Structure formats: C-alpha cells, structure tokens
Amino acid sequence: RLMQDVYEQIEVAARSDAPVLILGETGVGKELVARAIHHQSARGKGPFVPVNAGALPESTLESELFGHARGSFTGALSDRDGRLVSASGGTLLLDEIESIPLRAQVQLLRVLDDGVVVPLGSDKGRKVDIRLICASNVDLAEEVRRGAIREDFYHRIMVLAIQVPPLRERTEDIPLLVSHFLRQAAERNGIPVPELPADALE
What are phi and psi of 95, to 5 degrees? Predict the structure, then answer.
C-alpha cells in the first residue's frame, strides 16, 4: 500500500510541470522515482539529466549547473554549457539538494522564475525549458532553520513532495523483489530460475 501511494503520486506529478521534491533515505530509489515521473510526463522524450550536488565541489558546482564563459576563471579555456542547458526540453534531477550553496540557490530561483540561465563570467542569458526535480535524504525544514537553505528556495522546490519509504517499512515487497532479482540473475547466467525455499525467504 505504501508503494501504491508513491505510484499514485508519480502519476499526479507526471501530469504537472511543477517542481517536485523527493524525500527518503539513501538507497530507497529516489532517482528511479524521478525517472518514472520524467518518462510518464509530456517531457518523456526529452533529456533526463541527473546531478548529484553532494558529489560536486562547491568551487565547480556553479559552472557545472550554469555553464561558464571562456576566461571566467583559471582553466576556463572555452565557453561551456551547464547541466541546465543540457536538460532543456526535459528534466533536471538535483540530488542532495541540501548541498547547493546559497548563491547557487538564488541563481536557480531566477531560472525557475524566468527560464533564463546566465553562465559564469557572462552577461548574456540563455533561455531554457526545464522541469526541476530535487531529492534529499535530510530534513530540509531543519536546513532552512539552520540557514543552509533559503526559505523562498525551499518553498519553490517543494510544490509537490513525494516521500519514498524504506524497504523495512514495506516488507511485503521483499518476496516480489527476491523473485525479480533471482530471475535476472538466472537469465544472466543462462540457468533455470531456482526455487527459493520458504525458510530462506523467511
């Protein structure tokens, strides 16, 4: 039933173009939920661009997202499009959204408001058409209280929120998952699907 609620929320989110915030512990499948929203939406044939903000150093994150103009910093030898431009016509997934610095949050708010990306070191904006999906495994309201996330940014990204439950809260799904992975492993190895004894499943 818990996952049925998630599937229903995915369908609702896919019919809209509003920002979505996907919450849940590490490993629950937040990116899979984001991909499902993208593929079921009108943008499904466009690009799906996942970015793990927590894996990018703060010094390069803005360049990765917004792009940069040649000479805007040491090592910027040519103009470069950022991930926002790459995702135009489709969906941008920003995972670990709590890692986005405050300055970049302001820039993202501008993109959400007017659809224009300004690369670092440039004064020329570029029109983009993206659907933003964010994901996090932390309490973002607490991050707002701490001052790590701007309140206006928080409210802008959580128009639609989906909480993905961990497997321990939906143990009835385990037999289905075991069966699926057994079948996959058997196909990969060219062997019949083995029967799993009841005590092993238990």
Answer: -90, 155
Do 85 and 73 form a contact (C-beta atoms < 8 A)? Answer: no
24: left (phi over 0), alpha (psi -120 to 50) or beta: left
List CB contacts of 58: < 8 A, sequence separation 6 or more: 101
d(CA 141, CA 138): 9
Rounded-to-integer distance, Cα 49 and Cα 46, Å: 10
Q: Please compute the mean of the pLDDT values over residues 25-38 and round it to a whole number.
A: 96
CA 100 – CA 162 distance, rounded (Å): 20
Kindly state the tokens that stand for 20: 């979505």
Q: What is the pLDDT of residues 171-195, one digit of tens each?
A: 998 999 999 999 999 999 999 999 8
Q: Output Rg (C-alpha) for the chain, integer angstroms.
A: 20
- Provide the 8-state DSSP code for 160: E
> Which token pair is 75?
């090592």
Taking alpha carbons only, the member of 109, 26, 32, 10 closest to residue 65 is 109
Query: Does an H or E element contain 22, and which?
Result: strand 20-23
Strand partners for 62: none
User: pLDDT > 90: what percent of the chain?
Assistant: 69
Q: In this structure, what are the phi and psi dihedrals at residue 30, rounded to the nearest 5 degrees?
A: -65, -40
Is 70 exceeded by the pLDDT of residue 36? yes
| Cβ–Cβ under 8 Å, residues 83 and 64 | yes
Residues 38-49 as b or e (16 or more Cβ within 10 Å = b): beebebeebebb
